[in-house]
Design goal:
single chain, alpha+beta, five-stranded mixed β-sheet, two-stranded antiparallel sheet, 72% helix, Sig_transdc_His_kin-like_C
Length: 652
């Protein structure tokens, strides 16, 4: 019984270390392929980190690489930086914190890969690093637990990368457990998946060789040979060809075809001696098969030499190694050496079996603990989902209330807009009717007024010698003129209110226009009142409407003349280059306007003295004209010596 247990443990150690080494090469090849389509700066920095992967300082450099990749928007290199942190703990010498750190950073990679939709890194860190670490540490139950969990996730999400990594991990775990039947099942699944979805076929030769070895262990010879033939189809380089030679040699030895085995052993030995990489990294594989061959051909000296070379090349020695060494010595009839090696193998196997039992107990305790944590996590997730659903329900109700409020406000706004539109249409219609009425009435009134004015002038000329008659005719003429002016002002206000534009595209020289206004106003001031003109400069051209501007300024000068008994009336203008504006001022030393009436005078039909002549439309009409021209007309409230009207126009 002890012999069987010793043989099993020995096979486990040999198979375990044989499986791990190719995994590391595969990981390096995968990382090497990631350099394509990557920013050169990031890749150079990554290569620098990769060469120092086991150094403690590499963690800070990988943080820098992660930040650089984030700034360039390269999520792929961010995942590579996190995965290299996992590699740091995977390849570093064993410490007490190694497993915890490896689990922590594997979860970090999984979290980031899930968030950025990069499943290849999610499953690579989980399968090729964490699960392989458990296998390496002989925690096979934990490895199998993680692999089964990964298989469930990958199948639920239908992610091919996950299933590929999972089948590879399960194949290696069952090989390490010496459950070759199950290992063959998952090895075949891995190959079928690779071919079906045309995945990376770089390591397909190794996968077929592993499958062939599993079939040899279960004595399925035909399947083993067929797997060898398939492996030959996918050879890509000399190293893989060396693997093929070893695999075929193992097949001939296991099937007792020793003639072909000898020929192939010579060919494989020469091939390995000519290939440095095979000689330094994979010579153990050849030596193991050679030892088996020499034992079957009873060439015990050569078997002993080959086996001692295996012990010399490898830093580790398993119970199986010492058991085989004892059997070789026994075959050579060196029984004392055989007994020593077999006893040592049994002792080593017992200590390892005891350690393995402790590990298994610890693994089961860990699995139970993980299951308990998973259950608690599921309960917390369920509670969080219930809270989230309740919050969503409240949010939906709140959103419905808000939407209903907005809908009510919207329909109310639409209804009010319709009412306002109807009111506006009615107002515009009334305004048009008013304008049409005023225009028609003005036309009808103007005709008889013109007749009255004409006949009053005729009567005045007839009765020049009769002073009383002439006085009456002058009154009739003056009243008719005032009435005619009122009709003109009302008609003009109606036209401007209806939206009639005022064109300002006539180029004029302002000094010439001001002198014209002064000349026309010379007869208006009362005796003793001086009419003054103060220009800012000798010449200034601008685009405006001279007739409308003359209408407004002449009215301002006329008003100043009416209410100024002594002093002066000053017309001046100034320019403001920054504001691109021109200011025309009419300043007098008359009676002025009270402070509380200064806004009132610009209203229509506004008169401070109700007994004075005039219609009260002049200033209102003047302001409306200036505003239509893009300017403004105001009364200077700071001037107290009389009145000062300020007219501002844009300079075009």
């Amino acid at each position: 019984m002890k012999v069987c247990r010793s043989a099993g443990a020995a096979s486990f150690f040999l198979l375990f270390f044989w499986l791990l080494t190719p995994g590391r090469v595969c990981g390096q090849e995968t990382n090497e392929q990631e350099k394509y389509h990557v920013d050169s700066t990031l890749f150079v920095y990554y290569q620098r980190c990769r060469t120092e992967v086991t150094s403690p300082s590499v963690m800070q450099k990988l943080d820098t690489l992660f930040q650089m990749a984030a700034e360039k928007g390269d999520a792929r290199m961010q995942a590579v930086a996190l995965s290299t942190k996992v590699d740091h703990f995977y390849f570093s010498p064993a410490t007490e914190e190694q497993e915890d750190s490896l689990i922590f950073y594997t979860n970090k990679v999984k979290e980031f890969a899930l968030k950025t939709n990069q499943p290849q890194y999610y499953y690579f860190a989980w399968a090729n690093r964490l699960i392989t670490y458990y296998t390496k540490q002989k925690k096979l139950n934990l490895a199998l637990y993680e692999a089964n969990k990964m298989q469930q996730e990958a199948e639920d999400r239908e992610e091919i990368d996950g299933m590929q990594n999972c089948y590879q991990a399960l194949t290696r775990i069952y090989q390490a457990k010496e459950l070759h039947k199950q290992a063959a099942i998952y090895g075949q699944k891995l190959i079928d998946l690779t071919l079906k979805y045309n995945l990376n076929q770089y390591n397909l030769t190794n996968k077929y060789l592993e499958l062939s070895n599993c079939y040899l262990q279960t004595h399925e010879i035909e399947k083993a040979w067929k797997a060898l033939e398939e492996a030959q189809k996918y050879v890509l380089n000399e190293v893989q060809q060396g693997y093929i030679l070893c695999g075929t040699l193992r097949y001939y030895v296991q099937t007792n075809d020793l003639t072909k085995a000898r020929q192939l052993l010579e060919e494989a030995t020469q091939y390995y001696n000519n290939n440095i990489e095979l000689l330094t990294k994979r010579k153990t594989n050849l030596l193991e098969v050679a030892t088996d061959y020499y034992m079957k051909t009873k060439e015990y000296d050569k078997a002993l030499a080959a086996h001692l070379e295996i012990l010399e090349v490898n830093d580790f020695a398993t119970p199986s190694s010492y058991r085989r060494l004892g059997l070789i010595y026994a075959a050579q009839k060196e029984y004392l050496k055989a007994i020593d090696n077999l006893e040592y193998a049994f002792a080593l196997n017992d200590s390892l079996s005891s350690a393995q039992e402790d590990i298994s107990v610890g693994e089961f305790a860990t699995i139970l603990g993980m299951e308990h944590l998973n259950q608690e996590n599921k309960e917390l997730i369920q509670k969080n989902q219930e809270i989230l659903l309740e919050n969503r329900r409240r949010l939906i109700i709140l959103l419905c209330i808000i939407i209903a409020s907005f809908a009510f406000m919207f329909f109310r706004e639409v209804r009010l807009n319709k009412i306002l539109r109807r009111a506006k249409d009615a107002e515009q219609s009334a305004s048009r009717m008013k304008t049409e009425f005023i225009q028609n009435m003005s036309h009808e009134i103007r005709t008889p007024l013109n007749s009255i004015v004409g006949f009053s002038q005729l009567l005045g000329s007839i009765s020049e010698k009769n002073e009383e008659s002439k006085e009456y005719t002058d009154i009739i003429e003056q009243g008719s003129n005032h009435l005619l002016q009122l009709v003109d002002n009302v008609l003009e206000l109606a036209n401007l209110d209806s939206g009639t534009p005022i064109l300002t595209d006539t180029k004029v020289e302002i000094n010439a226009l001001c002198r014209q206004w002064i000349e026309e106003a010379k007869s208006s001031p009362k005796p003793g009142v001086e009419l003054v003109y103060q220009p800012e400069q000798e010449e200034l051209y601008l685009h405006t409407n001279p007739s409308r501007l003359t209408q407004v300024v002449s009215h301002l000068l006329h008003n100043s003349a009416r209410f100024t008994e002594k002093g002066s009336i000053t017309l001046s203008w100034h320019t403001f280059p920054k504001q691109q504006s021109l200011t025309i001022c009419v300043t007098d030393t008359g009676i002025g306007i009270p402070q509380d009436k200064q806004d009132f005078v610009f209203e229509r039909f506004a008169k401070i003295d109700t007994f004075s002549t005039g219609t009260g439309l002049g200033l209102a009409l003047g302001r409306l004209i200036i505003e239509k021209m893009g300017g403004s007309l105001i009364l200077d409230g700071k001037y107290t010596e009389g009145c000062r009207f300020i007219l501002t126009l844009p300079i075009k």
